[in-house]
Inverse folding.
């Protein structure tokens, strides 16, 4: 037996994955268990669950794949001297060199800490983008594809293009053919403007993407075009607007010139004004332009008609939708966990492929691969204001849920194994009817407690998706925005954002049988096979990974009911 543990740890979005004899046993983000969103802690609860799931102990782990390489951070230290050549970057040279050297030292110390936890394992550090690439390609099921990774920073790389092939079943091979290094970083720019607009970098970029639909990009189009200039092989970032990062806390991410040409920074408690909407719109437009440019380069450099996209910027569903609708590729794939948490899977897979002969299995299309729970062990006395009803069959559960949704109720759904990634895909979801008057306002104000301009995603039966959405390809992980049809605008305008798009999830019966059955029953009630699907959580909290978290969400929000496995739970 060969057991390989993959870890994303000591950085944001801690997670763990386990591969035993080539089979993916499971994967879960630590936040779903510890209730701390984007936790940086060692994923103790995630590892504990994986070992129990496989019947192993820490001593049975043969190898640990860690998703960063200390040596590659050190590459940035001598390169920092080039910043001395320009007046606008000179003051950043020494802090940058010291910052990258410090992080390299921390990474080595973290690897030693992991070695202590798994005494018989060899700890292998992976170049961060290689972990992203391996996961994105292995999960796609493609026999051959271009692989584009775009994020804020992986050691020194911010953008890579690789060519993935499978010369034999279950044995993906990747070759990086192009890389762009920091300080040219699309993720860094998006995060910097997110902070400038008053939201949390690394958490609320999606809020800025939603806000962008309400603004006019023309106002700041020239500024962002200058800030992020495309080149024949990629892009560069203007240091006079976005200074090179130092990896040291407190360093500013925008310059006084950017503030003067854009707007003063907005505090989180200040109202959102037209200037903020316009800046968000220009940022989003420029991001889409650069992503399209990179997709064309990937297509040209690899010759492949298929594209896998990973990294934090792959969570920009509007940008991914633009790539799809541009028609330069036959199919685009984004894995369910494209950000750093998913590199735990990529790290484990890469280590396994380098050391073991068995093919990889269980990764392709895998989404529902986290813990499941038995609700009969719940101490219902902790929530005395609840009423419960036991439902004996999946059919009864689906029919009741669809009936309640058709009546306008908003219901949490907790079933099966926890989804991978930032989107709730029917196992840890909040469902609502798109036909209910005022449903978006009610969801934002009383259930999610978030900004009123935030849209909600539709979930649709895959076989009927073309009636409402123009995407033209599957979207099982809610990772791409689609234009909508006239039928959607007429029947379900609640799911159409201000820019005429919707972040759609398509569902086949074999992907999520229960969710598909609920959609089928809802269609019989209403004639529409579409529901609103958002994550089972409130703003600032992680998606509910445990029954207790789900029950707290029910009692602490405007949810009308919760379907918790085979229990129908309502408030008195």
């Amino acid at each position: 037996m060969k057991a390989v543990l993959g870890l994303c740890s000591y950085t944001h979005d801690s997670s763990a994955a386990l591969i035993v004899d080539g089979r993916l046993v499971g994967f879960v983000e630590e936040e779903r268990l510890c209730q701390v969103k984007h936790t940086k802690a060692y994923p103790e609860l995630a590892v504990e669950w994986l070992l129990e799931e496989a019947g192993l102990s820490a001593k049975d782990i043969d190898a640990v794949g860690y998703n960063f390489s200390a040596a590659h951070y050190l590459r940035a230290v001598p390169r920092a001297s080039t910043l001395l050549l320009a007046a606008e970057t000179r003051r950043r040279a020494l802090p940058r060199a010291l910052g990258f050297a410090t992080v390299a030292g921390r990474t080595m110390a973290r690897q030693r800490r992991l070695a202590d936890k798994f005494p018989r394992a060899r700890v292998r550090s992976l170049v961060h983008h290689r972990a992203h690439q391996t996961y994105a390609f292995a999960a796609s099921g493609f026999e051959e594809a271009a692989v584009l990774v775009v994020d804020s920073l992986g050691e020194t790389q911010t953008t890579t293009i690789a060519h993935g092939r499978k010369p034999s079943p279950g044995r993906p091979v990747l070759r990086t053919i192009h890389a762009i290094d920091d300080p040219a970083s699309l993720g860094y720019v998006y995060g910097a403007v997110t902070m400038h607009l008053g939201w949390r970098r690394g958490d609320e970029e999606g809020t800025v993407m939603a806000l962008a639909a309400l603004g006019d990009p023309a106002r700041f189009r020239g500024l962002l075009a200058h800030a992020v200039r495309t080149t024949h092989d990629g892009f560069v970032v203007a240091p006079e607007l976005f200074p090179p990062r130092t990896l040291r806390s407190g360093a500013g991410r925008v310059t006084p010139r950017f503030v003067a040409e854009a707007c003063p920074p907005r505090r989180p408690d200040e109202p959102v004004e037209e200037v903020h909407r316009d800046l968000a719109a220009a940022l989003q437009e420029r991001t889409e332009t650069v992503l399209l440019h990179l997709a064309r380069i990937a297509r040209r450099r690899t010759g492949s008609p298929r594209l896998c996209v990973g990294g934090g910027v792959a969570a920009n569903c509007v940008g991914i939708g633009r790539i799809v609708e541009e028609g330069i590729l036959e199919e685009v794939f984004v894995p369910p966990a494209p950000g750093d948490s998913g590199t735990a899977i990529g790290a484990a897979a890469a280590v396994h492929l380098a050391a073991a002969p068995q093919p990889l299995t269980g990764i392709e299309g895998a989404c529902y691969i986290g813990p499941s729970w038995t609700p009969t062990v719940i101490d219902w006395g902790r929530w005395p204001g609840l009423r419960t009803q036991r439902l004996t069959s999946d059919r009864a559960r689906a029919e009741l849920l669809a009936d309640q949704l058709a009546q306008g109720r908003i219901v949490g759904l907790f079933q099966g194994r926890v989804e991978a990634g930032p989107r709730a895909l029917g196992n840890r979801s909040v469902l609502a009817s798109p036909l209910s008057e005022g449903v978006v306002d009610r969801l934002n104000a009383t259930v999610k407690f978030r900004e009123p301009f935030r849209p909600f995603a539709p979930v649709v039966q895959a076989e009927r998706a073309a009636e409402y959405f123009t995407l033209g390809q599957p979207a099982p992980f809610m990772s791409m925005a689609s234009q909508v049809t006239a039928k959607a605008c007429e029947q379900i305008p609640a799911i159409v954002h201000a820019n005429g798009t919707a972040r759609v999830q398509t569902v086949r019966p074999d992907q999520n049988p229960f969710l598909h059955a609920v959609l089928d029953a809802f269609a019989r009630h209403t004639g529409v096979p579409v529901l609103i699907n958002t994550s089972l959580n409130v703003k600032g909290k992680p998606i509910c990974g445990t029954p207790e978290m789900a029950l707290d969400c029910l009692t602490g929000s405007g949810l009308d009911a919760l379907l918790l496995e085979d229990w129908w739970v309502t408030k008195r």
DSSP finds 18 helices and 22 strands in the chain.
